[in-house]
Amino acid sequence: MQGFTVIDFIILVVYLGAVLVAGLFFAKKDMKGKEYFKGDGTIPWWVTSVSIFATLLSPISFLSLAGNSYAGTWIMWFAQLGMLIAIPLAIRFFLPVYAKLDIDTAYHYLELRFGSKALRILGAVMFIVYQIGRMSIIMYLPCMVLASLTGISVNLLILVMGVIAIIYSYTGGLKSVLWTDFIQGTVLIVGIVFALIFLLCTIDGGFGAVWNALTAEHKFLMPDQPIFDANILRDSVFLMIVGAGLNTLGSYVSSQDIVQRFTTTTDTKQLNKMMRGNGLLSIGLATVFYLIGTGLYVFYQQNPLPPAAAQDQIFASYIAFELPVGITGLLLAAIYAAAQSTLSTGLNSVASSWTLDIQSRLSKKEMSFEKQTKIGQYVSLFVGIFSIVVAIVLAQGGVTSAYEWFNGFMGLVLGILVGIFILGVFFRSANTFGAFAGFIASSVVMVAIKYGGADVSIWSYSLISIAVCLAVGLPCSWLYDKVTGHVSDAPAFTVFGDFRKKKEAKSESLGRPAAGGEAA
Question: Which of 122, 202, 388, 491 would be 162's cystine partner, CB 3.0–4.6 Å?
Answer without folding.
Answer: 388
